[in-house]
């Protein structure tokens, strides 16, 4: 199945056994000096075992720079560690080829000139230009780093010339405001990259595979266009680059560097296609390629010669192997939440995945078979309960899963109802598939009581009964026009052509407002007690969400604390005064509270081990529920 994906391809003289590459993603798993650690080795070996043809190891710095646990290759002392990484990958999967990506992050003298800054992320950089002497130092640093990579045994290298990093800042007219031989025209802007390529070639030889990662577009006014990118690609091919890896975006447009929920799968493939039409060397497409079907179509349609999977291999390292065996439904698909990047790596934290807790913990969260098969009873079929049931079954236990409703999914079903969050459904389908494949007995519409537990005689009970919307003790809280965000997102309350007031402007409330506005509410108003709405959600998702709310004329009242609900609407204290907000529907989106009411009695009567996980232990997010399930399953 997917024959085209599993045909070999050559980068220079290097044969890649299939057309799936692991995209370079920073992990923060190196040590403080940038050297290889066992955790880093474990991370890559798990992906190698999953069946990729090529691993492009994350961006290794070519010069020392303060960067929390960022991999480095700027010193000869780093060769041994890099060599041990390559050796471990080859021992795990002898046919997998391993390249190292080289990068230099802008430092105190990193920019080429002063662009019109669009966000705070760019404003933190010093905008002084590199001198020509400093440029020569950078070229030599890339050259020596490439030589170290070859000595360490890497099969090739990739130069990172995208995403606002140093080379991209020379290539892109958005950044490059120089007027010397390194700026002022596209031909001059590319000089720095060409000097690096030529110098590396002179050091490693003409036959050593060399890739270049470039932007197919910066997606910012005044930045690189698709036509600029095609010209750059042609010049790089003439200089002896063996393959091009086409990405997109700069600091001002991070949604294109790591496309979020709501963006179309494969949304950057057209950029690779545009480059491929102008060059003869292999082109690699990247960007939210999250199914084998999509990956194969991109290659079959001639948009690229290879595809690169980044977040997809975090969510499921076995993506290639499962695709090759035709087990597409068993792939844990990335939900494009950007948790791994914005909420982890950008904060200098080790890489993690919202739906796969083994990421960054590959040596810790392993489901080894239990020495003794036990009876395990799980109460609650939300993400925590489903993950716990799956993990316990994988360990060889006999699992019974009880869900009071008639479908599994819990809060995931509510979350995926919000606009632009449909991809959460893929995670639900994956969990349902795993439960069908494993020896798990599922009971719907049943709340197990003490007698039921006694009959089951489990060795352990896992309570995962989730949470319910918080209802504050306020005047008018029980009036008939008061609903919860769950009522709205599940369509239990009509909002069409009505004035709707949403109490709570966190992520849940804002997504609920987005839903209500999409469903033709007459007016939508959000009350948020904090100074800023949606402060609890990922930055790109937040910006795009607030832009949609603005375009739909949703009103947001910040510093507004709900104090009373009336027949006409609601009353809020705002800036020391009470304000009246008229509304036909008042929606409570004030967070959640643990729901253990129907599990307390059976759990109390349980004569065996009892564990509370997920939201019923403490309301949190998907990653909290999944992690608590895995941690519990390991010890049961």
Explain this structure to me?
- The chain is α/β, with parallel strands linked by helices.
- The strands form six sheets. The protein has an eight-stranded parallel β-barrel with strand order 3-4-5-6-7-8-9-10, surrounded by six helices. Strands 13-12-11-14-25 form a five-stranded parallel beta sheet, with helices on one face. A five-stranded parallel beta sheet has the order 16-23-17-18-19.
- α8 crosses α10 (269-276) and α20 (507-518) runs parallel beside α21 (539-551).
- The longest helix has 21 residues, at 132-152.
Evaluate the radius of gyration.
27 Å
Count the E strands: 25
Oligomer: single chain
Widest sheet, order of strands: 3-4-5-6-7-8-9-10
Low-confidence stretches: 108-127
With helices defined by DSSP (H or I, 4 residues minimum), what is the helix count? 23
Keywords:
636 residues, 25 strands, alpha/beta, single chain, 8-stranded parallel β-barrel
SSE topology:
Layout: E1 9-11, E2 14-16, E3 20-22, H1 38-49, E4 54-61, H2 79-92, E5 97-103, H3 120-123, H4 132-152, E6 156-161, H5 166-171, H6 186-189, H7 191-204, E7 210-215, H8 226-238, E8 243-247, H9 254-257, H10 269-276, E9 283-285, H11 292-300, E10 306-309, H12 311-315, H13 319-324, H14 339-342, E11 375-379, H15 383-394, E12 398-403, H16 411-415, H17 424-437, E13 440-444, H18 450-456, E14 460-463, E15 467-469, E16 482-484, H19 485-489, E17 499-503, H20 507-518, E18 523-527, H21 539-551, E19 555-557, E20 560-566, E21 569-574, E22 577-582, E23 585-588, E24 592-594, H22 600-605, E25 609-612, H23 622-635
Parallel strand pairs: 3-4, 3-10, 4-5, 5-6, 6-7, 7-8, 8-9, 9-10, 11-12, 11-14, 12-13, 14-25, 16-23, 17-18, 17-23, 18-19
Antiparallel strand pairs: 1-2, 15-24, 20-21, 21-22
């Amino acid at each position: 199945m997917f024959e085209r994906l599993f045909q070999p391809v050559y980068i220079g003289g290097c044969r890649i056994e299939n057309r799936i590459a692991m995209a370079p993603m920073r992990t923060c798993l190196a040590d403080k000096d940038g050297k290889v650690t066992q955790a880093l080795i474990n991370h890559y070996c798990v992906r190698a075992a999953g069946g990729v043809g090529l691993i492009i190891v994350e961006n290794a710095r070519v010069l020392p720079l303060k960067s929390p646990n960022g991999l480095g290759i700027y010193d000869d002392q780093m060769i041994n560690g890099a060599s041990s990484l390559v050796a471990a990958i080859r021992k795990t999967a002898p046919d997998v080829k391993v390249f190292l990506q080289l990068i230099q992050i802008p430092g105190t003298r990193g920019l080429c000139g002063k662009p019109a800054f669009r966000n705070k992320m760019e404003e933190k950089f010093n905008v002084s230009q590199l001198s020509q002497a400093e440029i020569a130092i950078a070229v030599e640093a890339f050259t020596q780093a490439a030589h170290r990579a070859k000595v360490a045994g890497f099969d090739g290298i990739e130069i990172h010339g995208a995403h606002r990093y140093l080379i991209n800042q020379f290539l892109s007219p958005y950044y490059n405001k120089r007027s010397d031989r390194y700026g002022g025209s596209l031909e001059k802007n590319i000089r720095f990259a060409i000097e690096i390529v030529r110098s590396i070639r002179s050091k490693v030889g003409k036959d050593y595979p060399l890739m270049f990662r470039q932007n197919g577009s910066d997606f910012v006014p005044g930045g690189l266009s698709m036509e600029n990118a095609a010209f750059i690609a042609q010049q790089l091919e003439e200089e002896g680059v063996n393959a091009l890896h086409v990405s997109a975006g700069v600091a001002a447009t991070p949604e294109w560097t790591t496309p979020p929920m709501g963006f179309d799968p494969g949304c950057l493939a057209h950029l690779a296609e545009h480059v491929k039409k102008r060059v003869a060397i292999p082109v690699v497409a990247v960007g939210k390629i999250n199914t084998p079907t999509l990956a194969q179509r991109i290659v079959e349609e001639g948009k690229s010669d290879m595809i690169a999977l980044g977040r997809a291999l975090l969510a499921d390292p076995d993506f290639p192997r499962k695709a090759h065996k035709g087990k597409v439904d068993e792939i844990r698909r990335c939900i494009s939440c950007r948790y791994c990047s914005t909420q982890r790596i950008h904060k200098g934290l080790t890489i993690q995945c919202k739906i796969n807790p083994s990421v960054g913990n590959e040596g810790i969260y392993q489901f080894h078979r239990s020495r003794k098969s036990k009876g395990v009873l799980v109460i609650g079929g939300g993400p925590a309960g489903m993950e716990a049931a799956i993990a316990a079954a994988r360990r060889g236990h006999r699992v019974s899963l009880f869900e009071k409703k008639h479908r599994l999914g819990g809060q995931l079903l509510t979350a995926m109802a919000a606009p632009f969050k449909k991809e959460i459904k893929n995670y639900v389908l994956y969990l349902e598939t795993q439960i069908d494949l494993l020896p798990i007995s599922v009971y719907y519409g049943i709340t197990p009581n003490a007698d039921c537990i006694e009959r089951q005689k489990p060795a352990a009970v896992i309570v995962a009964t989730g949470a319910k919307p918080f209802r504050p003790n306020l005047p008018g809280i029980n009036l008939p026009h008061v609903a919860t965000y769950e009522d709205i997102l599940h369509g239990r309350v009509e909002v069409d052509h009505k004035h709707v007031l949403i109490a709570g402007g966190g992520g849940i409330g804002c997504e609920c407002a987005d839903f209500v506005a999409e469903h033709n509410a007459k007016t939508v108003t959000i009350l948020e007690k904090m100074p800023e709405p949606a402060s609890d959600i990922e930055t790109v998702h937040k910006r795009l969400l607030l832009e949609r709310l603005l375009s739909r004329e949703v009103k947001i009242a910040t510093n507004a604390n709900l104090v009373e609900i009336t027949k006409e609407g609601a009353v809020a204290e705002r800036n020391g005064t009470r304000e009246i907000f008229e509304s036909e529907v008042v929606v409570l989106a004030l967070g959640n509270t643990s729901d253990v009411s129907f599990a307390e009695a059976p759990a109390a009567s349980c004569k065996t081990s009892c564990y509370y996980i997920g939201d019923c232990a403490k309301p949190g997010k998907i990653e909290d529920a999944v992690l608590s399930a895995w941690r519990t399953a390991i010890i049961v």
